[in-house]
Specification:
about 0% helix; mainly beta; single chain
Amino acid sequence: GSIGVRLREIFVYADPDLTDPALLETPAETVKGRNVAKGKKVTSNDALSTGPASNLTDGVVSDDSRWLSSQNGSSYWAEIDLAEEYELVAADLYMGKDDSSWALASARLEYLKDGDWVTIPGTELKNNASTNTDVSFTFSPPVTTSKVRLVSDDGSRGVRVRELMLFTAGSPTDGAEDTSFLERRGKEIAQGKPVT
């Protein structure tokens, strides 16, 4: 039989160290350092035995390794204990399924500040499309904290989240392996270009 090819998207990134202004219309994106959430302890208010909250920080972005909640609540949260304070500059959130479905419609990231949970500016998703499963946030300004939590008010839909990565500034090789091209990308230069 014949074999077909199915692509969701192709991203092409410029070198983040590229300085020729003629080649870059806008400055390079924030260079992400270590994913300090990887392997950290996670607690949640709701999780199925087949999808424990610990899957949120296991370093695996896959349908087989997701945080899965029941569909019985109105609000769901998962708290990541970083064990020490870090200055965080960015986050990558992988929701739903590998086939770009089941993204959270409503979600936000919060950090612990002086004993209170505060929403990280620019991380609130409202009426998010069900196909918008992979989202990157840049924190401006950065936040310093030892705990971050993901909160969703999706109610009877429940949550399906493959991974949450939290990044410090600097090189991805600062004390950890370079796990993804996403951690050190420059300007995305292929968007909107013709495909033949």
